[in-house]
Write a structure and sequence with these properties.
The protein is of the alpha/beta class. It is about 30% helix and about 20% strand. Strands 1, 2, 5, 6, 7, 8, 11, 12 and 15 form a 9-stranded mixed sheet that branches. Strands 3-4 form a two-stranded antiparallel ribbon. It has a two-stranded parallel sheet with strand order 9-10. Helix 11 (about 335-340) crosses helix 15 (about 385-395) and helix 12 packs across helix 14 (about 375-380). The longest helix is centred in the C-terminal third of the chain and has 14 residues, at about 350-360. It is globular and about 60 Å long.
């Protein structure tokens, strides 16, 4: 039996996040999305850490479940078709800002812990370094290598995964503040890094172009700041339901246990291409090279995006040259599919009415997007919705890449495929 896991999320204690990212909110939306194992996010924040201790109880080794009192309170809000057990894994994202080799570095890292005791040791050590009370994703002046040492000292069973490794401003390989190799960042501690998070602006195929990454398993997570974003990237696993087998599956990249990653289209990521958001200028790596990295409007340096940065370090032309490849597939969230089809906002009443109709009748969102027969989808939602989901499964979509902090546009139907009159939106 396989399950979906999303290890990198945030709580309501992180800046710019939804107040609905509470323990009940995560339990409700995890089931609606179809996630079985979810990271808690933000365990370094003292208030969230206390909430987690109050609301979670031990389940399988290294995993936790919500206590029955809260489950009974929240379960009536979950459609019967989506009901399922959920498990939680203690996790947090740390932002490290420090100077190394003559440059300022800004690195984000995901930490997972199998116990509250190990998490508490990490919190105690980090509290001496900086302010962990201000933000659920604390910003600390600590070398990423030293952070890794603290984590391993707390427990060798912890996981340390560099986050969204290509993001320009806050990542291991970021064009503005990152490194050109794993060893340059982590030095003798590199052996403790077994996985990398690809992030929203890159996909596995892009990472496969650099042979130096062949030794690392590539994972995908949502980095969700609101409930609707949960699972926008995720991992499908077929290992035993416990922390230690999950960790071993991630470390080994065994394709019999690590079945696939579920991907955001990287072009939709807000740092995929190069450019200047203020100037509304988007550039391909080739265009950036021709312009010597200068914006044609304001004549200042452009923000170099993920695609360009990957190509600068790549030593392959064909991603299939990597032998140990885990399958992956792209998805578009259900509310965004409905938004494109109905030509209204993704969180509008019109979209959410149709969303709840489909979820209530067919099951959780991942089931609908990945597995539900198109005939069943058509029976509940009509032929246009069935066609839209079929197009997403086949990768037949319209894409306008993101750049310099501006999200890209990924639509199931191109503007030419949708005809809009004054009274209604109609396909064809």
């Amino acid at each position: 039996m396989s399950f979906i896991a999303d290890f990198h999320i945030h709580s309501h204690y992180s800046r710019a996040t939804s107040p609905k990212l509470t323990a009940p909110g995560l339990h409700k939306w995890g089931q609606i999305k179809g996630i079985k194992v979810m990271g808690t996010g933000d365990f370094t924040h003292p208030s969230w850490f206390t909430e987690l201790q109050d609301n979670l109880e031990p389940a399988e080794p290294g995993l936790f479940k919500l206590n029955n009192k809260i489950i009974q309170e929240v379960q009536p809000e979950v459609p019967q078709s989506c009901h399922g057990e959920m498990r939680y894994l203690l996790s947090v994202e740390i932002s490290s800002i420090y100077s190394k080799n003559g440059r300022v570095r800004k690195i984000h890292s995901i930490i997972c812990s199998p116990t509250f005791q190990a998490a508490a040791k990490i919190n105690h050590a980090l509290d001496k370094i900086g302010n962990i009370k201000h933000d659920g994703r604390p910003i600390l002046g600590i070398d990423a290598k030293e952070l890794l040492k603290i984590v391993m000292d707390a427990s060798p069973d912890c996981m340390f995964i560099p986050a969204h490794v290509w993001t320009p401003h806050f990542a291991l390989f970021g064009s503005n503040s990152g490194f050109d190799s794993i060893e340059e960042c982590f030095e003798e501690m590199t052996e403790y890094i077994t996985a990398l998070e690809t992030g929203l602006s890159s996909d596995p195929a892009m990472n496969y172009l650099w042979s130096d990454l062949d030794r690392f398993t590539l994972v995908s997570n949502s980095d969700a700041h609101s409930p609707m974003k949960l699972g926008r990237e995720a991992n499908r696993l077929a290992c035993d339901l416990n922390y230690f087998d999950i960790k071993e599956t991630i470390k080994s990249g065994n394709p019999e246990k690590f079945l696939e990653t579920i991907e955001f289209y990287p072009e939709e990521g807000k740092y995929h291409c190069d450019g200047h958001r203020n100037c509304k200028v988007s550039m391909t790596p080739e265009e950036t090279a021709e312009a010597n990295g200068i914006c044609p409007k304001c004549e200042r340096k452009v923000t170099v995006g993920v695609l360009n940065r990957v190509m600068s370090l790549a030593d392959r032309k064909d991603p299939e040259q990597r032998s140990n490849r885990i399958p992956y597939r792209y998805l578009v969230p259900l509310n965004e599919i409905l938004s494109n089809l109905l030509q209204v906002g993704p969180n509008s009443k019109t979209v959410m009415t149709q969303y709840w109709k489909l979820i209530s009748a067919l099951g959780n969102e991942f089931h609908i997007l990945l597995d539900a027969p198109l005939s069943e989808i058509e029976k509940i939602g009509g032929p246009q919705i069935a066609l839209a989901i079929d197009k997403v499964r086949r990768g037949d979509i319209y894409i306008k890449p993101g750049y310099d902090g501006e999200y890209g546009v990924v639509q199931v139907f191109s503007p030419e495929e949708l005809e809009v009159d004054d009274k209604q939106t109609a396909l064809f």
